[in-house]
Amino acid sequence: MTHTYYASNPLVDNFYFVNIPKCASQTVHAWAAQMSTKDAKIKEPFRFCILREPWGRLKSTFAYGCGAKYSYNFTIDMIGEWYLGDPPLKPTDQQADLLVHFGTQKSFVDAAPCAIDNWYHTGTMRELRSDLSAISGCHVGWQEENRSNYTQEFTVAYNNWFTANESKLDNLLADDLELYRSHVS
After folding, report:
1. Cα-Cα-Cα-Cα dihedral sign, residues 165, 168, 171, 176
2. Structural domain for 45, as ranges
3. Weakest-pLDDT range from 22-26, 69-73, 146-150, 179-183
4. Looking at the 3D structure of the chain, how many domains does it have?
5. Alpha carbon distance 78, 98 (integer Å)
6. Rounded mean pLDDT of 158-182?
7. Are 58 and 173 in contact (CB under 8 A)?
8. Cα gap 136→43, rounded to integer Å
């Protein structure tokens, strides 16, 4: 699985974000860009990760896969088949890119290029922004939240797929649910 961990682009010294797809990556990247242009100085390494409630992350990944980024080429049933263990043998670039998003949060944490000292979740983004402002010495402005706007058609199709596969999903997400619970009180 090929994946980028934001630790050096844009360059902010001592800023190490263990990036998990569909877990506020765009927001953190925008904040890093703000800090970079304001000459932020982080004195001690700040190594952090953002977790997302696993069921919501899964739904968001399906919506992402069905959307404009992939030219609306993929259906919920296609994505579901790949997620449940039957990925394309020779994936196209689009398919390979989407498949990265299905790595478990635990797999990204376990493969992180650094230790994680600070844990956040998508419900604590304001706290993270405040912490980044405090440790960098510059005001990190709020980023417009990336809100999901699921269509009714998507919601019905996803809910049907989810209901048909719920027991398999319980097993696939067990490690992520445990990870999430261990860091979100």
Report:
1. negative
2. 15-183
3. 146-150
4. 1
5. 12
6. 96
7. yes
8. 8
